[in-house]
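quick one before i forget lol
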Amino acid sequence: MILLLLSAIIPVAVFLYCIYRKDTEKEPLKLLVKCFLWGCAVTVPVILVELSLNFGNPVITSLFPNAFYDAFIVASLVEEAAKFLCLYLIIWKHKEFDQYFDGIIYAVFVSLGFAMVENILYMLDGGLGRAVARAILAVPMHGLCGVMMGYFFSLARFSSIDKRTKLLWYSFLVPFSFHGLYDFCIMYFIPQIEINEGMAGLFLLAFSGVVISIWRIGLKNIKKHLAQDTGKNR
């Protein structure tokens, strides 16, 4: 059991440490912990909403619309909306939100608070194998979606008022889209692989494309905001 818990927690801790190290002006630990704990706590209402959406799901016999509904509506929409709400309520007007990179670091702490609790729940259900798979794929996905959310969140915070609403929408819609694509690839292709081995190659291609895109955009956003903060401090 201890090994399973560590397999769920360590990947989250590693990702958080890597993001924290990049911050040129360290944020208060108390505020970071608050973001992380809110991310953990919001898992409970998220699960309840997702269960109700699954319960109320109309009977869909076709795999494509069913996978789309589960990936984009049940999972991505609910989870990214909850994370965005936590980030907005805690950080938007906070005095410590004074650099571009701050939006990224706070968003990642919220996202990975959620991811850690989700990891533990999946680990209890699927064991070590699932925990390892999530450590490699799901934790970075949540973290990098947090990077995307924080990137546009900071742009909104430091932009003129007329641009804020659009950028805040981007702060939600961009991670929502990538999270949904990630889940859709898993929910749509994997069931077909079991009955059609030819789908394995297509799944690998589609899934790899989504994962690589998430990494590239996430890392690009990190570099952009670090550069903006460096220029701002000169």
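fyi Residues 2-232 form one domain.
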